[in-house]
Amino acid sequence: MAVLFITHKFPPATGGMEKFSYELYRSMQQNMPVHIIAYEGKSSRILWFLQLKKNIRTMLDLHPEINIIHLNDGLMVSFGLWIKKFTGRKVVATLHGLDIVFPLPYFQRKILPKFNRLDGIACVSKAGREAAIQRGIDPDKIVVINNGVDHELTRSAKSMALDEKLYSRLNIPRDAFVITAMGRAVKRKGFSWFVANVLPHMPSHVVFVLIGPVTSYGKKWWHPMIPSGWVEKMALMMGSATDEEALKEYANQYPGRFIRTGYLPFTDIEKLLQSSGVFVMPNVSVQGDMEGFGLVALEAVLCGCFVFAANQEGITDAIYDNKNGFLLPAENANAWIETLTTFIQNPPDDGLLERFQEFTLKQFSWDQMAGAYHQWFHSILAS
């Protein structure tokens, strides 16, 4: 068995799907011969897609032993439904969340049902699987394979001394109780909801630090050129910072209590997580969008944070209540306020965090994920 991975999400770009594609390819190399066609940002993405058929043919001519092809997400499937017929190989894909629920009627009615032509589909969470089945994907074609997490984060977390220079640079008070969150400023992440509904009711020494780029989102020059209903859909598809304007307003409203870091190198992110008391994933429901998994929450646990997360969508495949974090009802401000206040005033002993980390290490790893894909590929070829 030999696999060809085709992905338009790959380093040096950063993000959850880029991390998934890289780690799957890297880890699978330990199990079997693997090859890859990846978009690495060296040309336009459109040109990469236009040259894909030629590049696939070249790859198969060089490596005729390839007998299964993996596509990294639903967008790749949408543009690559021809690959199975063109190559005569088994073709499978991984779906992550938005690529299932994307609220474009044409996609839902005409494109998504054609995913049944694939030989198999992996969803990164049970919530993703249910969403796919609800939209007409054959449940017999779907398996759930959770993402992994980097175990090295736990080793680096053993030296958890506060970085004075980093705190000074970010204007975080030395004696603050830091609550962190991390991610793009998209509405489903619930960052603005948390600042508006929870932060003002936290003890006065609590500071909320949002790790992630500060971008821009507003009216674009091309907005008047497309139907108004498409603007939001395009923003979802492109991962635009739909929560950005609200977050900027709240940063001005709560100076010193709500801090945005902007882009940080990963070493600084680790240091910040290691010195934080709490990490939150306060996701909210957004029609046509969903959280496919909770990888960032797992990274926070291993870095030494107690994680509090919304009990919805794919997050529940990553965080198990009272086993490696705490799940709270989404958009229930009173529950979040009461639970966090109690935790801050009466923090648990270090033994609980160690148990949470041990559970995460046993439950999730990139090698475990690759092993599950390896078994799945074998079953696809045997069918």
Query: Count the strands?
Result: 12
Largest sheet: 6 strands, parallel
Instruction: Output the CATH topology of the largest domain.
Output: Rossmann fold
Question: What is the correct CATH architecture of the largest domain?
Answer: 3-Layer(aba) Sandwich
- Can you say what the CATH homologous superfamily of the largest domain is? Glycogen Phosphorylase B
Overall tally of domains: 2
Structural category: alpha/beta
Provide the residue-averaged pLDDT: 91
Distance between the termini: 14 Å
> Which strands sit side by side, in order, in the main sheet?
2-1-3-4-5-6
How much of the sequence lies in strands comes to 5-15%
What would you note in describing this structure?
- The structure is a single chain.
- The chain has 383 residues and is an alpha/beta fold.
- The protein has two domains: 3-148 and 365-382, Rossmann fold (3-Layer(aba) Sandwich), CATH 3.40.50; 152-363, Rossmann fold (3-Layer(aba) Sandwich), CATH 3.40.50.
- It is 42% helix and 14% strand.
- The strands form two sheets. A six-stranded parallel beta sheet has the order 2-1-3-4-5-6, sandwiched between helices. A six-stranded parallel beta sheet has the order 9-8-7-10-11-12, sandwiched between helices.
- Helix 1 crosses helix 18 (366-382).
- The longest helix has 17 residues, at 366-382.
